[in-house]
Amino acid sequence: MNPRHLFPRDQSLLPLILTAAPFLVGLVILALQRGAATDFGGDASLIELATMEAASGRRLLGAYSRYGWHHPGPAYFYLLAVPYRLLGPDAGLQAGALLINAAAAVGIVAAVRRMAGARAAWGAAAVVLAVCLGVGPVYLRDPWNPFVVVLPLLLFAVLCTAVAVGRPRALWIAAVVGSFCVQTHVGTAPLVAVLTLAVLAVRLRGGAPHHVLMQRSGRTHHRVGSVVNVATAAVLAVLALWLPPLVEQVRADDGNLTSLARFAVGAHATHPVGEALLGYTVGASAFPLGKPALELPQMAGVGQVLVVAASLLGALACLVWGRRHRDRLLTVLGATSLLAAAVCVVAASRVVGPLLGYLVYWMVAAPALAWLGLGILAARRVGLVLRAGMVAGLALAVGVGLAMSPASLDLHPPSAMIGSLVVAQARGMAADTVSLRIASKAQWPTAAGVSAALERAGVEVRVQGGWISMYSAARRPRGDEDLEIILSDPGAIVPGLVSARGFGDRLGTVVHVRRLPAADAGVTMDAG
Fold first, then answer.
1. In 185-327, which ranges are continuous DSSP H helix?
2. Percent of the chain with pLDDT over 70
3. Is 253's pLDDT higher than 90?
4. What's residue 42's pLDDT?
């Protein structure tokens, strides 16, 4: 029997279907886990609180950054809001992250299929699924913003490639995806900006392939009109996405965008070239060596160096092969991968403070472009059965990885237990609003989990002192709170606290709860 008879006549959709399949498996499993208790704390709980605000249309800022400002915009939280409402806090947040990664993965394969046909789409599907498997399937559904931005950033780069090779209609999609990446993780802004400028320069130079240029004046006029329409759609889409942070900037005395700009142009110590290269090497080798650790090593391992060297050689090979064979797609993919690598090294040198693993994780998108080009080149030279078998095997491996991942991520059990106790206290005292004081710095992860537990129970949380920057200005105390909740380390002396002891000390957190008269609510403003 001819092996081709094993496949449907129209095989161009199979790469898309196989790419989406493992994500569908993960979504089904998460749906079955709906209602499971969450043990979130720290950053995950801050993301949950932001998603709650987005679900009610109140969120104007992105995720909190350790530098004291927020990432530029809330697009990510508005995307999370729907699955959060449907599936609850734990499964909903993870399902939202998984859906975003699924859309990005399928979008990459679809874009390649649109540019170069079904054979190339098989290669793109194999590379995308291999990247998912290499970095770890569990991180495809981790809602932390440094993780969720990787595949969308790769999609943005592929869409820029599409525009450069003569697909101007991809411009507005690239504008939306690029805006999402920057709003979700501002560390991606240098790469998004450089690739945007590069693709615009290519378009202005008339860089479309010869066969797509229209010669007759009527068709040329139609083409110009089409480009104008696409550019207009891109501008409108970007304005819509950036409206919330612009509103916050206008409303606030010192807006978040101003804080970001001040930080960006401020005088900060830069990392030497060696450290920047180390950061890029660790981040870029996340595929296939897995997510980098929090603390970067003193020097890169042999495997990491070999992976990065292979990706650079692969990018160069795509560039040379593409130019020699007049294959514009491979040429642009190779050139873009090399350009992205250079941008990543510069970006790593500008990181303020220590280079941490999650700060360079997004850089895996740069070498992934080279692997994408090599995958497309290989797919053009192997038979259908081998192509399909490879993609199906990778899809199965990713699906199994998602199925075997733990039900809950970013666990912080003290947050759940303390949260339950505080919720019981608030309900017992018929409180609608609480004023939260974090009296010990080490208690902020538990405080975030407690805040999320209270909000899920219908109790509004407002945060005292300098800790408000970790939440949002809307959570500043107003003086009408029913209770004050104070979290401190066991044995810590809490200024202004009359009672000598609270509850929860055996869990590593001492909780003091006291009723506030309306006239005195919010008077204590110690940030700890």
1. 189-204, 217-251, 256-265, 273-284, 286-289, 302-324
2. 87
3. no
4. 86
For residues 138 and 401, the answer to whether their CB atoms sit within 8 Å is yes
Q: Where are the domains of the chain?
A: 12-208+225-249+271-403, 413-515
From the list 502, 378, 509, the residue with the least C-alpha distance to 448 is 509
**Residue 262 above 60 pLDDT?**
yes
Centre a 10 Å sphere on the Cβ of residue 346 and count the other Cβ atoms it contains: 15
Compute the distance between CA of residue 440 and CA of residue 494 in angstroms, rounded to an integer: 9
In whole angstroms, how large is the CA radius of gyration of the chain? 25
CA 422 – CA 445 distance, rounded (Å): 15
Instruction: Return the structure tokens found at 371.
Output: 């692997």
Coil, strand or helix: which one is 326?
Answer: coil
Tell me 503's DSSP state: B
Whole-structure pTM value: 0.89
Q: Can you tell me whether residue 221 is helix, strand or coil? A: helix
Structure tokens at 214: 């229209």
Q: Which CATH number fits domain 413-515: 3.90.226, 1.20.120, 1.25.10, 3.40.50?
A: 3.40.50
Which tokens sit at 28?
Answer: 């089904």
Exposed (0-12), middle (13-18) or buried (19+): which is 309, by Cβ within 10 Å? Answer: exposed
Q: Which of 49, 84, 95, 90 is nearest to 70 (CA)?
A: 49
